């Protein structure tokens, strides 16, 4: 008998190495219209006349990405659209259409689906996007939602992860860690309820972090403000898996290093308060929590004053030579190597 074939467990690879493994055979496109395939927030396809379409897809699975114990269906529909639009904006493009495919188990009724799609419609209306198709199927494992978003931009306006250059400024929109702390609060209250069915959830004073988890927004206004200021980022990515993971993506794709200043990372007051209450290091939450759907981007040093004047944008570091690596700079003590500890869909149980 021949030797048994080596088995590589998925958790050994992790999500990003698995994606690299899957997509490697497809790196050479067969069509000239395929400007850029896998490896960024969205694929880029030529639309002719120096314009391009960007296309991105995200999959949300019940029990993995959301828990219907505390996640309203309307909010879930809204969020499923936003996570895709955020990828389109991260390419410096404008979203125009979406398709939505769902898998449903028998426990759902027609009114449940109405509620889900009311959230989808709200997102479409708010971001001026058309729903143009999709698919429905039965499911044995609860609710599955897959959204594909399509956007458009001039070819020379597209921003990739690969354009960061030494001395560029590293910027982030809004604040980070709030969605993760909102999730931790909801999970805490769920555990209390499971042990005591008469217990009432204690959510007062945490509206902001709850909304950041349950009903996030894409940073459309920041993209508009950058264009109005005449600033085209040299690289950009949306913060879905955690700030640490995303800056490492930019560094890897751009072949650079970075220095991120810990005290400059924007953290909301409710995030800090919840972290203290749950005895979680707030900077760990900010760096690794994920699902913030903020934009992390780089701009040339000479754009310092212009980018600093944009509301909702914070300069958190700068790009360095690749040989210097990617490090966090604390207020005191030695620099800390940045590691990707954010969301890992394939981690070992």
From TrEMBL:
One GO process term, biological-process aspect: thiamine biosynthetic process
Positions with a binding annotation for Mg(2+) 2: 58, 87
Catalysis performed (reactions): thiamine phosphate + ATP = thiamine diphosphate + ADP
Residues at which Mg(2+) 4 binds: 41, 56, 87
UniProt source species: Tenuifilum thalassicum
Transmembrane segments annotated in the record for this chain: none
Protein name per Swiss-Prot or TrEMBL: Thiamine-monophosphate kinase
Pathway the protein takes part in: Cofactor biosynthesis; thiamine diphosphate biosynthesis; thiamine diphosphate from thiamine phosphate: step 1/1
Alphabetical list of CDD domains matching this protein: ThiL
Residues annotated as binding Mg(2+) 3: 41, 87, 238
Pfam families assigned to the protein according to its UniProt record, in alphabetical order: AIRS, AIRS_C
The keyword Metal-binding is annotated on this UniProt entry: yes
Residue ranges constituting the PurM-like N-terminal domain according to the UniProt record: 39-152
Function, as annotated: Catalyzes the ATP-dependent phosphorylation of thiamine-monophosphate (TMP) to form thiamine-pyrophosphate (TPP), the active form of vitamin B1.
Miscellaneous field: Reaction mechanism of ThiL seems to utilize a direct, inline transfer of the gamma-phosphate of ATP to TMP rather than a phosphorylated enzyme intermediate.
Binding of ATP, residues: 117, 134-135, 161, 240
Origin organism lineage: Bacteria, Pseudomonadati, Bacteroidota, Bacteroidia, Bacteroidales
Ranges of residues in domain PurM-like C-terminal: 216-320
The protein's Enzyme Commission number: 2.7.4.16
Residues at which Mg(2+) 5 binds: 241
Similarity section: Belongs to the thiamine-monophosphate kinase family.
């Amino acid at each position: 008998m021949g030797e048994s074939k080596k088995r590589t467990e998925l958790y050994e690879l992790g999500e990003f190495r698995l994606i690299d493994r899957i997509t490697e055979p497809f790196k050479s496109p067969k069509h000239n219209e395929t400007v850029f395939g896998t490896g960024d927030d969205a694929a880029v396809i030529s639309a002719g006349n120096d314009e391009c379409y960007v296309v991105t897809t995200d999959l949300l699975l019940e029990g993995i990405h959301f828990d219907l114990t505390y996640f309203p269906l309307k909010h879930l529909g809204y969020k499923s659209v936003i996570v895709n639009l955020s990828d389109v904006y991260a390419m410096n493009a404008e979203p125009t259409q979406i398709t939505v495919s769902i898998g449903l188990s028998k426990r759902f009724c027609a009114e449940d689906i109405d509620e889900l799609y009311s959230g989808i419609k709200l997102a479409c209306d708010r971001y001026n996007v058309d729903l143009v198709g999709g698919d429905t199927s039965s499911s044995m494992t609860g609710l599955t939602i897959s959204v594909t978003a399509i956007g458009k931009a001039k070819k020379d306006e597209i921003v990739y992860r690969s354009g960061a250059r030494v001395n560029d400024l590293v910027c982030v929109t809004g604040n980070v860690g709030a969605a993760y702390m909102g999730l931790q609060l909801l999970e805490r209250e769920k555990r209390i309820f499971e042990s005591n069915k008469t217990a009432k959830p204690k959510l007062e004073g945490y509206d902001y972090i709850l909304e950041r988890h349950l009903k996030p927004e894409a940073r459309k206004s920041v993209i508009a403000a950058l264009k109005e200021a005449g600033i085209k980022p040299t690289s950009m990515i949306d913060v879905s898996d955690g700030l640490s993971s995303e800056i490492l993506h930019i560094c890897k794709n751009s072949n650079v290093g970075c220095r991120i200043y810990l005290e400059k990372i924007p953290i909301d007051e409710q995030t800090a308060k919840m972290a203290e209450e749950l005895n979680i290091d707030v900077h760990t939450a900010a760096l690794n929590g994920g699902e913030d759907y903020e934009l992390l981007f780089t701009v040339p040093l000479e754009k310092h004053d212009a980018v600093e004047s944009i509301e909702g944008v914070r300069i958190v570091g700068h790009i360095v030579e690749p040989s210097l690596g990617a490090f966090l700079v604390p207020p005191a003590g030695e620099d800390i190597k940045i590691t990707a500890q954010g969301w890992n869909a394939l981690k070992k149980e």
